[in-house]
Amino acid sequence: xxxxxxxxxxxxxAKLVKENPKIVVLDADLAGSxxxxxxxxxxxxxxxxxxxxxxNMVGVSAGLAASGYIPFAxxxxxxxxxxxxxxxxxxxxxxxLNVKIVGTHSGIAVGEDGVTHQAIEDISIMRSITGFAVxxxxxxxxxxxxxxxxxxxxxxxxxxxGRSKVEDVFDxxxxxxxxxxxxLKKGExxxxxxxxxxxxxxxxxxxxxxxxGYDITVVDVCAIKPCDEEGIQKxxxxxxxxxxxxxxxxxxxxxxxxxxxxxxxxxxxxxxxGMYGFGESADWQTLLREYKLDGQxxxxxxxxxxx
Length: 307
Known about the structure:
41% helix, 13 helices, alpha/beta, five-stranded mixed beta sheet
């Protein structure tokens, strides 16, 4: 069943806020869009709409965390990472406070809102902050697993979610260890690391490539930081051709992380597929086609390299 990861976030947070009185929810005037409003209905006394004041939202979240609460602070990915970087670094990361920052409407799939709202640098921004964990789930079930995990584990983190509905990769019976890579399809010679909605695009591309005689391995990387270095190393060692696919700038995101692991553990040439510049304003399916990040586009790019 297709569901946006932001919808899954709202559902799971609503469940957790009922179960754990220490969880508090903050939003920056976008609760209806981030879906944190669903949790607000369950526990209105622990829901705070901070208005269009993201820096204040993070500052208040830091204070709540220092007081023993578990704050989930939500806004669009562009605003809760870029607009408020200093507060995240100095008020949350430096004292290592238990603040969960959840950015929805990430990447170019935010669509018609255009370049000003299309966060294609957020993974890079948050990955660079000392002590911050970064997670990019691909569907509703992986999203719920991430939210459960961060609610139970102490430490600051960033969760990157999307606006649009995406097809399920997993189901409710899947047993997650979100700190490990997930090998979704085992092939030969060629491996593709992907995250977020690019998991669905890569799986579609894999089917097209198989029809052309290329049997590729598809790896879902939800935990960008800390990453599963041993699991990634194993994939690098077992394959000749390595690709990364992300709905993010090729600088600083998943592709850069895989390159860093390769440099440390198993040198390989890494071919990075993603954004090489700003996007445009259009519906999200059109944008994915335009930048060759839909299934067909990923297929064409990988096949072009392999040939």
